[in-house]
Amino acid sequence: MAMKEVLILSIYFLSIFVLTTVGGDFVPSEIYRRMDYLDKRKEVKLFWKFDEIHITFEVHVKTTGWVGLGFSPKGGMKNADIMIGWVSDGKVTISDRHGPMFGNGFPDLDADQNIETFDGRECNGVTMIKFKRKLKTCDQDYDQTIGEDTIRLIYAFGLSDPVNDTLSISDMHAFSNRGSKSAVLLSGSIAPPVYANERHYSFDILNNGTDIPTQETFYNCRLIKLPILTKKHHIIKMEPLVDEKFIDNVHHIVINRCGKPPNDSLVGSNVECYGDKAPRDCSYIIAGWAVGGGDFYFPEDAGLPLGTPDSPTYVVIETHYDNPMGIEIRDFSGFRIHYTPDLRKHDAGTLTVGHITTGFELVIPPKQDKFTVLGQCDAECLAAGMEAAGLDNITLFATFPHTHLAGRSIRTRHIRNGTELPLIAKDDSYDFDYQETRALTKYRVVQKGDTLITQCTYSTTYNTKTTFGGLGTSNEMCLTFLYYYPYIPVKLCIGSPSATFNALATIVPFYSVSYKKITTGMSNMYDLVITSPGRFYNETLGDAMNQIDWTKPIVDSYNQQIRKGKQRQHCGSFEQTNIERDRLVDLVNIASPYVESEKSCTPSGDSLNVDVMAAECPSSDGSGVQMP
């Protein structure tokens, strides 16, 4: 793999978030630490910042017409909270609106206007509007509360301003001038650090001209051997590289670290992920990107080690392609890994916590609106890692939550001495299509003796068959990948209810089974053949479970059995076998559960939505940095 030195100047880091917009030298009105493109053409660019009460948005769109931004429950106009603005005759107009209760339609004005207009301008074919609103307003009917969950942003724009400054149904946008994008607006921000004396290098992890089958959905996995370094370095930044020719087809990219070294003859090979030929023991996520995502920076005092005996040597780049038109794709997408030989204070690490992912441990009934499971990371496993590293605590700075298609909510809970502390992370509006590392707004310290619980809630309303744990997207997972420092030699801290199998035996029922490998990939209940009793004799346990009528009493009984008793705990390490262990542990006793405080609202008043005079177009020195 080619190596190249990258000169990264301080001005480069500063300009990351104040680059000019598409098609002009239009810069933001201030320096922002958060930015996202909402469309694949990069014509709709959103900047934002927030505090405990308010959130400020600045939207840049390649148009001289009106601009719309909204928050939607499911990605459409139905019941969406919408803001629409334009710049006309030197005046900025922004209004607070809402979508219809059914389907798409004209966005009516809210009775309560909860937007404060700050700025707006039209420059070089780009319209900018800037406004502020409260995270939680008192408009319970039409305004959506903005929290730490995934939110579906919707956008639209017209090619001209409304006639007489009055939006009407005749101002309908073109079909191509609208869209949606999932995002986490209240995630933390790890700003690009500036180190005058820090040397930076990079290498690429790419698909490298991979020919993708012409099918609608395909997951390609490519095994990569990382460059051999003769001394320790630190990864400081992970930059997604998406092939511009296939920007509409590359859905998300994940880099997975491999545990046991795979066969070198497989390096560079491409296989369908989750099949029999996919590399094994390569499921420890270290980087992720989804449509619209950006670069990920490590904190200025930490970096992920490279060039050490226990650092990654092999990785798998997993790329999800959407190809509804069946076009030929030869893709070069991937990641650029930035690293430095100038070591930072702390070695960072990644820790996988959650529910054991096998088809024997994770079993989710069909036709359930909400079904919740728990996976415990036991205090003893974390303590063993900290003791091996000579530490009393570690600091968490980012998370990567992960379920599959049925996942609706995922929470990472934190228990210390029987008291549940505030949630480390939560997403009660999880979107499988939004796969990205999320910086914490506040770093969290996990002490020796603490327990972590990953809680996932699934919706299987439209599933007619039982869902099992596994690697495929039709299977399920319940995992959180934690980024932390300093490094401890623990890679996995996962658990599952020990009562699962016995609970299922009371539902099917069965007395004995034999193992016979029938399925491909990870084994599950379809590989267990019932040998008694007669009702399901010689059928697989998976098939038998699909014949069960999962009534509410049966589901409740099953849920009660797996939510009490002991957990089967797995503690895993890349390099220290004395930490590896599998044992039964008690589910932690939470004497004082954490209760989330309800954010209160305060009326915004009627004076917020006032006309603002448009600012003059800013000048630029051509570097992408705003002129003083």
Characteristic terms for this protein:
single chain; 628 residues; mainly beta; Jelly Rolls; Immunoglobulin-like; seven-stranded mixed beta sheet; seven-stranded antiparallel beta sheet; 41 strands
Outline of the structure:
With 628 residues, the protein is mainly β.
Give me the Rg, rounded.
26 Å
Report the CATH C-level class of the largest domain: Mainly Beta
Output the structural class. mainly beta
Percent of residues in helices: under 10%
Can you give the mean pLDDT? 86
The strand count comes to 41
Tally of separate domains:
3
Through-space gap between termini: 42 Å
Number of helices: 5
Proper CATH architecture of the largest domain = Sandwich
- Regions with little confidence, pLDDT below 50 for 5+ residues: 1-25, 620-628
| CATH fold type of the largest domain | Jelly Rolls
Strand count, sense and barrel status of the largest sheet are: 7 strands, mixed
What does this structure look like?
This protein is mostly beta strands and 628 residues long. The protein has 3 domains: 1-13 and 192-346, Jelly Rolls; 17-188, Cellobiose dehydrogenase, cytochrome domain (Immunoglobulin-like); 348-507 and 548-595, Jelly Rolls (Sandwich), CATH 2.60.120. The chain has 5 helices and 41 strands. The longest helix has 11 residues, at 379-389. It is globular and about 80 Å long. 44% of the residues are buried.
